[in-house]
Amino acid sequence: MAADSDWHLTRTFNSTSGDVRWDRLGPPGGPPVVLLHGTPFSSYVWRAVARSLAREYDVHVWDMPGYGSSEKAEGQDVSLAAQGRVLGELLAHWQLTEPLVVAHDFGGAVALRAHLLHDARYRALALVDPVALAPWGSPFFRLVGAHADVFERLPPALHGALVREYVSSASSPGLRSDVLDRLVEPWLDDTGQAAFYRQIAQADQRYTDEIQGRYGGIGIPTLVCWGEDDTWIPIAKGHELAALVPGARFEPIAGAGHLVQEDAPAQLTAALLAFLQRHR
């Protein structure tokens, strides 16, 4: 995994929501860290951070079912509820009883659900622009969710243009063309096109409504990082979330949009390292 083009997950776990591709970086005896990506992304967005953390930590990366290089199938359950269960299955498979967890976007909701509803234990939790508080979902997101069957039938060229524009909007300074190509690639063939609209159709705010009232009971060290220029989820939501979690530390990231890992990887890595080193 030396270069961006070489980011390939080499291992497979058969979860209750399909085959999950995953991998491991860093010294096996190091403190374990689990990285969770969001939607419509994959573990690829964590590549720079993961490689930096892997100097000291045993880093676990994975593509959620229905995303990236993991299985995409008709009728697949890729909801937040399913992803939370799959995270619990992976932690058991990896024999991690109390890892450090870092989660972005929908991955934040997955990590929170696994912890609050499925008794997943973490040593500490870092949330990066997470989906956690109502209301969420842009007008575009809600439109697609209500008419996923129609969007699934878009001509490939129109679908590809839509996905590229959507993913591009997650960055504040803009994405390099090769990075954008890699981020949209999993969604462009027939299987990927159906999977793209499937994951939006199954996104439901009730999955965060179920846990939002429990944030005051989170008793582990928590860091909330937020891109100051996030247009997908405004930074005000970050302040609100940090105020709900007892003792949570809030860390704004200047010059970054929603895809903080792409917009400001050095600043994000520094914030995460400082937090993880205090709680390893």
Question: What does it look like?
Answer:
The structure is a single chain. By secondary structure, this protein is an alpha/beta fold. It has a single domain, classed as Rossmann fold (3-Layer(aba) Sandwich). It has 12 helices and 8 strands. It has helices at 47-53, 80-94, 106-117, 139-146, 148-151, 156-168, 177-184, 190-201, 206-212, 235-244, 260-263, 265-279, and strands at residues 11-15, 18-25, 32-36, 58-62, 100-104, 124-128, 222-227, 249-253. Strands 1-2-4-3-5-6-7-8 form an 8-stranded mixed beta sheet, sandwiched between helices. The protein is globular, with a radius of gyration of 17 Å. Residues 31-265 form the AB hydrolase-1 domain. Keywords: Hydrolase. One of its GO terms (molecular function) is hydrolase activity. This is Alpha/beta fold hydrolase. InterPro entries: AB_hydrolase_1, AB_hydrolase_fold, Carboxylesterase_BioH, Epox_hydrolase-like.
